[in-house]
Amino acid sequence: MNRIIGILMLGALISGCTDKTSAPAPWSACFNGLSNHGRTADKIYVTSGKKAQIIGLQDASFPDLGGHVAGEMGGIWTGSFKLADGYWMKVADVISNEDTLLHAREMIVYPHQNEFDFGQVLSGLNISSTQFASDVEPGVVISYTIENTTNNERSVNLGFLLNTDMSPVWFSEENGIRNTADKVEWDKDKEIFLVKDSLNSWHMAWGCDHKIACYEIGIEHVHTKGLVTPTGMYTTLLLQPKQKETVRYVITSSIRSFDEAVDNYQILLKNADKELDDKKQSIETLLSTSEIEIPNKDIENAYYWTLINNRWLEMDVDTIGYYLSAGAVEYPWLFGCDNSYSLQGLLRTGNFDLVKSTLRLLNKVSERTNGNGRIIHEMSSNGFVGNKGNTQETAHYIVALWKAFEWTGDKKLLEDIYPNVKKGITWLTETMDTNKNLFPEGYGIMEVKGLNAELIDVAVYTQQALAVASNMAALLGEDSLAEEYAQKAEMLKQRINTEFWDEKAVSYCDFYGSKSDALKTAKGAIEQARMTGGEESEVIASYYVNLINEINRNYKTDVTKGWFTNKNWVINTPMECKIAPFERAQEALETIYLHNCGKYGPYLSAVEKKHMMTIATGVQAVAEANYGRIDRAIDYLCKIAETLGVNMPGAINEMMPDYGCPFQAWTVYGLATTIVSGCFGIEPYAYLKEFTIVPQFPQGWDRMSLKRLRIGDNYVSFSIEKNKDTYTLIYTSQNEGWKGTLKLPEMRGKTITMNGKQQLVEGDTILLNSRKSTIIIPLDK
Fold first, then answer.
1. DSSP at 177
2. What's the pTM?
3. DSSP-based three-state secondary structure for 740
4. pLDDT digits (tens, 9 = 90+) for 618-664
5. Which domain holds residue 726?
6. Is residue 615 in some structural domain?
7. How many domains does the chain fold into?
8. Alpha-carbon distance 75 to 539, whole Å?
9. Which candidate, 359, 458, 353, 338, places its Cα nearest to that of 417?
10. Among the listed residues 650, 657, 552, 564, the one whose alpha carbon sits nearest the alpha carbon of residue 614
11. What residues form the membrane-spanning segments (predicted)?
12. Distance of CA 714 to CAs 685, 773, 774, Å?
């Protein structure tokens, strides 16, 4: 398709309509639920709320899961501690004494809750359950529906068994937090169980909305695998023929007292239906912001479920705050790197409050931990920092902060964090640049043994940080500092394009350094490869052995240059950040596509040619879109979309196609950025109440729309449709006083129809100053 026409089409699209129609929203089908059809019973699921999570397998069992706290990452979690290893339902026929533990034959995932179908249990009893985790109280609600399908009265005994295991999150024992025995007691007046860790201030209350016939307290224990006696409460139901009845169980917690845990229990029990409805409505609001409708329904569906995945990763921990966690189930805590990507996706999908809260929390924790502008790598939900920060994270955070300002227009956010931005720039350009060559040293995104050098991603994100810090300084009246940052940004850009480019490989290099740095990196890669063992690791080790021989043979001791050693995916960052010259970018992108990619996108390391991640493929899509290669960008998004639901319905795995975390926050970066800023070409300037549109229209698409895109305090919509002879673009703005600039570089001298009037496009842009504009663009004959 002609790029000029594509741009025009997109412009229209970008003007999507806000008019209400009878057609269902494109995301509404998500609430119909997605079934695993019994195929992934042995895979992990997560039922998540801002205050709690349930993690188990899709057959409704709770085996030992996870690695950070070995075998303990499953169960019921809330905030900074675990409540239980899991729960089970035992069903017995009172007359025949026949009994069984429920085992799900099917799981259905909804945005707001999960459902298990147990099918026919015993004889003539159909049982299903639903569960949701609260956004308001630190607890969960589990409801069982029992249907008597026979023509006879049935007396059924339900035994709800909970394996209490109040224990801390990852990185606790190293900081003096020990797991001790749980003390369980029965409150006969309230008919609830009360549980407390013997040493720590962790309290739990749980009970049922039906009369309890009897109860059983499990053995007090410090969790020992396989030697746990669960606590149980038993309820008897008398079911008439064809009768259906629902029994609800509520589990809540407190970090302060039993009284608070009981209050939370009573509130959640009383308000469960309302809370679930509120949760559903809040997700509907989330999905209706930046609502897309495109011909590629696979990408469209993946886009909406990725927003839902990120909703599942929102955390509101009493002792810490409200933030976006990195991924379930191994990384449910705060990350600098992950959020520097994820938050940029969230900005494009309108979740401003979460973005700003997460940025503020990262700044607060980093200042408390480091005090020098350095941004932390990760903090567990108990408040302990496990890694004070890799070098690229400080630069990347500064970039994400500026993006937040561009989208939200929140100057106070910028003013509050700017002092630490200046400290961060000093840390990057002075403390971490010991040889004063503008390339900061230290680990970047790829935590590869021995790769502690002057890395491509660190250099690129530092260049970007200097550029946006210059903008911040100018906005806040520090003109001389703005000029200093701008000059350094330009010099660093030039040096990256000179020193990191490998003409022979037609690629940017992994790092810049000396011959000894290259040898150290290769030796570290050999050591890391051989740690895994096996034939495959020896193949990788052999590559690096040959590389060492080549380096020793071809380079003198004192040589300093860019080295293409690991072929890590981050060599795409110059294109992601648009600092690569156009022709060079075309070559580099093609090199990655032809030589460094697998079925699902760029390999994490093209040496190993094994692992692929959504973040690598997503960044590659962003890079392709930046240089007019929108069809290739869409192809990469298709690779991500293809993995939707491979393990958990509605979820996209961290590692493609089917391993790692069931879902990871930063997947939203590639999808949202490529669609909103690539296809629709939106660049916001919320502080000025302005935005630009430079659209690209993928081959084969005849329509697309973007509705209720949030920029500052405004919502704008765009739609575009291809007819026989024209493209029709419609733009609407909720608020007055906003200026949109539609950039049409190939439309100079063309005549268009705007709001019923013909006009000549004299320059390269069309101004959209009214609240609604309809633009008709003739197709070239």
1. -
2. 0.94
3. strand
4. 999 999 999 999 999 999 999 999 999 999 999 999 999 999 999 99
5. 3-26+679-778
6. no
7. 2
8. 39
9. 359
10. 657
11. none
12. 12, 16, 19
